[in-house]
Amino acid sequence: MTTLDTAKPADPEKLAEEIETLGRRLKSVRASIGRVIFGQQAVVDQTLITLIAGGHALLIGVPGLAKTRLVETLGTIFGLEDRRVQCTPDLMPADILGSEVLEEQEGGSRAFRFIPGPVFAQLLMADEINRASPRTQSALLQAMQEHRVTVAGRPRALPEPFHVLATQNPLEQEGTYPLPEAQLDRFFMQIDVGYPDREAERQMLLATTGVDDVEAEQAMTPEELQAAQRLVRRIPVGDSVFEAILDIVRQGRPSGSELEEVRAQVAWGPGPRASQALALAVRARAVLDGRFSPSIDDVLAMAPPVLRHRMALSFAARADGVTVDDIIERLCAPHL
């Protein structure tokens, strides 16, 4: 049994003690990541929030911003078995899920043997996921939602914990297939990865062009990560925070929004899964900052990465230069 475990606390003091312990462990996780990934603190924090909330993340950024390095580092820090899939147009579902092969056994009999694909890992990196065909992208849908896959008619459970961290290049659009809305909705967050600031890039140059190569060190175990995910769900949330989540999500739906710009500029808005993700994200952010319960500020901070891939603008809005982040900012404005 770990120090971040499982059983429902008998009193608030026990819960506070568990949250405080988790906060200290996450502080060491942050420090370990900081020795390998320079700058990008918002990206690192959002990715950690995704993991301790039990979700999947879509990282969008130009090449060379350490997206792959971040995923590899997280695998090491949490002691997760990780695999990487480089998505290409000719990638087939069996290349991700695995397949059955016919083998001849002793005595001449033949039998099928299942060879697991890379999806049978605790941390799967799908690099440039939008280069895979829709048929291959759909192979991840069941895995991301149900944590199991069906191969040759048989359901097969995936390891626990199971997380998909996918990357996407926003610049090159030739030879790409946009992710369907159903799959986008399975991602807990869309994390936009920007360029590092000058000082962070300077530190990166000093660390990566010298003789010594800094490696990440394990700071938590997979069992402790799972215990943290269970603890996050037990963190109390005030009614005002829940009401803010409901206001922001529901006002983003053009069919029932009171905001004229939403009705005119949004083609489709976030569903109930967005409310669930936002409720978990604010809890995880509070723990990451060492607090015992989330606030309205957590809702405002988590709304963009949770909602931006769960909304689509109308053609007219895109033509006018409106962005999804502009709409989310308007949804959050009454709670500032």
Structure characterization notes:
The chain has 336 residues and is α/β, with parallel strands linked by helices. The chain has a domain at 236-336: Magnesium chelatase subunit I, C-Terminal domain (Helicase, Ruva Protein, domain 3, Orthogonal Bundle), CATH 1.10.8.80. Helices cover 45% and strands 15% of the residues. It is built from 14 helices and eleven strands. It has helices at 12-34, 41-52, 67-77, 93-97, 134-146, 181-184, 198-208, 222-232, 239-251, 260-265, 272-288, 296-307, 315-319, 324-332; strands at 57-60, 82-86, 98-104, 110-116, 123-127, 148-151, 154-157, 163-168, 189-192, 266-268, 312-313. The strands form four sheets. Strands 2-5-8-1-9 form a five-stranded parallel beta sheet. Strands 3-4 form a two-stranded antiparallel ribbon. It has a two-stranded antiparallel sheet with strand order 6-7. A hairpin with a 5-residue loop joins β3 and β4 (110-116). α2 (41-52) crosses α11 (272-288) and α9 crosses α11 (272-288). The two termini are 42 Å apart. 39% of the residues are buried. Residues 1-7 have low confidence and may be disordered.
Distance between the termini: 42 Å
Oligomer: single chain
Provide mean pLDDT, rounded.
88
Helical residue percent band:
40-55%
Helices, by number, come to 14
Order of adjacent strands in the largest pleated sheet:
2-5-8-1-9
CATH superfamily of the domain at 236-336: Magnesium chelatase subunit I, C-Terminal domain
Radius of gyration: 21 Å
Which sheet architecture does the biggest sheet show? 5 strands, parallel
Reading off the top of the CATH hierarchy, the class of the domain at 236-336 is best stated as Mainly Alpha
Question: What shape does the CA trace take?
Answer: globular
